[in-house]
Design the sequence.
């Protein structure tokens, strides 16, 4: 298949682009490289020494003989986005090209507004581009399990059969997202569902859980293919961050009681899920929702697993319970369904000691690059603006102005 | 009370500002006057000869001795919006300041993106301004009954008690909006609910039905206080438009079968509902939802009532069934609850022959201003871009650029 990966320079996007290319698909990466800029703005960096996109693509070609096409630009710039659709003629577009950090969106008003405008406009542009230029193309959109929040009922995959006052309907599952970022994904989901309904577009909305891991078979081929490994309080995801903390003897930063339960998956399953969605497209007019995770854990369980793995390596790992900077339930019911991707053939990589060992080894290997001042949470959900200890400049994708018709 | 009316130069906003002023509240209008610009851009005009906002306010003062304060600017410009909150110190902010036409949002990509960015950013700015400067102030936000769509179950006021697999929760009512405009209101509702939860703000989200009528006791005081009366296919609401069509012998433009059922209310009830919401504020942290309409009608019923009223005046009124330019069910179940405002004391003005007569009389009186070329629908939901017969220029509130951090 011909598959565009929007956001293909990012954490999940890069692993996905390589995997799809390896599997024989024709792949194009569409990316503005702004994720690298955000690291600069926030004064943070990935643990791993990520190469430039050009170097990455050259290495991939040298290692495998496979060429990944590349379009550099911002999808909030419609003309740019449309040109990639016209030129590449994708059968599927995998859309990772959004600001994806909850704390980033909660820094202050500008970051909240930027996150929502950037994500909503990019997705709207994509819907219009597909309708105009490629209506049979399948949209594979990355959403998040965080769209659902933590309701006191089982979480279904996108839709809920409701019986009420003797009548019945199947309705979109009610959403209770927990940050301005998660809200942006809820906005996207509503927009996508509508576009499928009025225009007959075909879409799969993947509500992904927390991703962990960094290596995939493809990125392991050459160090120049190494993936991001974010451990800072803004972009770091919890299991990865705990491994880095353990490696340097920093107490694991559990927020509150640690009873927050979420769905998790290995990045090697992310890439497989994406391919499964592409290979089994939604029907015209269908907006299908898959919950993309393989296991549920409480945050404290994750911390305890990392603690045990660290002790096996001779590390002394403490667990710290910090006041929760987020507004969220620290203990709650959580039971989210996730059978649709398994039905399509997903064989999960469950969280194992060997994976924890390998993450810890990566953390040890790049230990010199670890900046411990990036561990502590600095973004408080309760405050309307947060000053982090590093200077930041607000950036907005230039395309946002174009998209809303500004000069 | 001190009440800011954002969008106070518009159709519902102007009537509300006058009513609240008459009732003894201190009122400020905050408006960018962009609604007038959109008329120019689309080549349309209100039936009634609306005066400049300055003339309106001078007339109000001359007639009643009451002064309405006025801030001209765009609420997508945060510094401007914040300055109005600092200067006026409102106890309640009534927020009408959004692009409110479904067809406008469906013209093309630019109008869709503009509608969502304008509405979402304006509301986000307001939430941040209240959190920063006036956390006890009550937000009274205009939503729309169109957020719910037409589910096959009863529509509740904002929240639904769900029993599922033996467990129970009260969740936001699932939304199925029918245009990029209606989607923008759904996005707002999610953002507002979240801000109440994390910051303890107090909000009332009013899901308003289709408003009809134009005269209120206040605007009737002087012709210079006359309200808008939109009858064009973009901004006109259905009952008002039918009355104008009847007045000039143009067949009433029913879309499809006309079985579309919606909630309706008289503009004299809109203003009363707003005051009731202000006088009985939500509690801190509460995001309350009221369904603001008084009666349900099928579109064809509305057409038949207008036909009967026209015939009484000696007019020959035909009903035309046009292909539905919207993607919507032309026959469906609809039963929406609306008891919360009644519980607070609303005494509805139900749709009556005398109201229809008065609307028809206004249409006859300003008959010379009617442009029949504005009746036929020109915006087709199924097309990604629609060319209307008048030239249009895309306008975007300048503040949108500022809001997203652009130069």
Sequence:
């Amino acid at each position: 298949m011909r598959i565009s990966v929007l956001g293909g320079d990012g954490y999940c996007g890069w692993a996905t682009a390589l995997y799809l290319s390896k599997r024989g698909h024709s792949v194009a990466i569409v990316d503005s490289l702004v994720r690298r800029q955000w690291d600069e703005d926030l004064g943070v960096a990935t643990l791993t020494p990520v190469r430039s996109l050009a170097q990455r693509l050259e290495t991939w070609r040298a290692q495998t003989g496979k060429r990944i096409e590349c379009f550099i630009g911002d999808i909030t710039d419609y003309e740019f986005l449309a040109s990639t659709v016209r030129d590449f003629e994708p059968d599927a577009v995998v859309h990772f090209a959004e600001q994806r950090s909850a704390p980033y969106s909660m820094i202050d008003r500008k970051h909240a507004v930027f996150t929502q405008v950037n994500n909503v406009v990019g997705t709207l542009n994509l819907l219009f581009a597909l309708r105009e230029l490629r209506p049979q193309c399948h949209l594979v959109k990355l959403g998040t399990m965080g769209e659902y929040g933590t309701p006191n009922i089982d979480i279904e995959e996108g839709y809920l059969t409701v019986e009420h006052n003797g009548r019945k309907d199947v309705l979109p599952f009610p959403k209770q997202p927990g940050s301005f970022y998660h809200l942006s994904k809820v906005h996207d989901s509503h927009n996508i569902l509508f576009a499928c309904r009025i225009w007959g577009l075909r879409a799969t909305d993947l509500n992904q859980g927390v991703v962990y891991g960094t290596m995939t078979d493809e990125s392991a081929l050459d160090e120049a293919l190494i993936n991001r490994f974010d451990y800072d309080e803004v972009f770091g995801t919890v299991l990865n961050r705990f491994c880095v903390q353990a490696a340097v003897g920093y107490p694991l930063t559990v927020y509150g009681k640690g009873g927050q339960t979420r769905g998790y998956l290995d990045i090697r399953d992310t890439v497989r899920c994406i391919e499964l969605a592409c290979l089994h497209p939604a029907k015209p007019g269908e907006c299908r929702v898959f919950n993309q995770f393989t296991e549920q854990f409480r945050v404290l369980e994750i911390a305890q697993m990392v603690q045990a793995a660290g002790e096996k390596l001779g590390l002394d790992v403490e667990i710290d319970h910090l006041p929760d900077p987020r507004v969220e339930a620290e203990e709650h019911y959580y039971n989210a369904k996730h059978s649709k991707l398994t039905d399509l053939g997903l064989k999960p990589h469950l969280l194992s000691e060997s994976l924890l060992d390998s993450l810890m080894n990566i953390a040890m290997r790049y230990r010199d690059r670890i900046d411990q001042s990036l561990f502590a949470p600095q973004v408080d959900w309760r405050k309307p603006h947060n000053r982090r200890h590093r200077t930041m400049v607000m950036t907005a994708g230039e395309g946002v102005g174009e998209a809303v018709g500004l000069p």
Remarks:
- The radius of gyration of chain B is 20 Å.
- Residues 180 and 234 of chain B are 14 Å apart (CA to CA).
- Residues 109-133 of chain B form the longest helix (25 residues).
